[in-house]
Every structure is written in C-alpha cells, then in structure tokens.
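Today's session is about reading a structure prediction critically. Students often jump straight to the picture, but the first step is always the sequence itself: look for stretches that repeat, for charged clusters, for runs of hydrophobic residues. Only then move on to the predicted structure, which in these notes is written as discrete structure tokens rather than atom positions. Here is the chain we will use throughout the hour.
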Amino acid sequence: MPARRKTASKTATKPKPEPRKPLPFPEAVRRAVRAIPRGEVRSYAQVALYAGRPGAARGVGRELKTLENVPWWRVIRSDGMLAPPVAVEQARRLKAEGVRLEGQGTHWRVHR
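Below is the predicted structure for this chain, in token form.
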C-alpha cells in the first residue's frame, strides 16, 4: 500500500499583501512627467491624473517649478498653449524633439 502524502488544507489562507501606500505627490508627478515619451506632450491635468490626483493640475504646475531633472517642457496647458513665462524656452526644446508648434514670441500652440 503506497504511503499517503500530506497535503495542505484547502482552507488554509494565504497572507494578504498590504495595500500600497500612495506616493508623495512630488514623486508621483516626477514619475508621470518622466514617463512622457520624447516628442510627445501631456497637459497638466493629464499629468495630475497619471500621478493619482485628478483635479490637481495647478499642483502639477507648482511641483514642476521645484522638481529637478524632469522634462518639464513636455507639459502644456489643456488648450495646447505654452505657458507664457517659459514659452520661448519650452518652444525651443519641443521643436528640438520634433513637436510641431504654431506661433511666435511668447504665444505658442502645439499643432495637433
């Protein structure tokens, strides 16, 4: 007669993984902006959504002023316009990545 093997009880419970804590907002924004591919743009609202804080578009703008080593120029207003205080530099960087723009001076719009 073959020996019986002991098997785990079907009623045994597996330990549940602990819920993941959300990232701090600055880190979530950093990751969302770094994930934007070269030559593409996202709106402040889209970045806020990807960062897990829908409706925090203004907060994204504030964070971009303080974060370093992120491609901030890939984030634009939802109407396609570039923010006037940084429009010239932002337009230069976007053009270098192949993004099509219309406008001049401080009034630039991403051509979609």
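Discussion point for the tutorial: The first strand starts at residue 42 and ends at 43.
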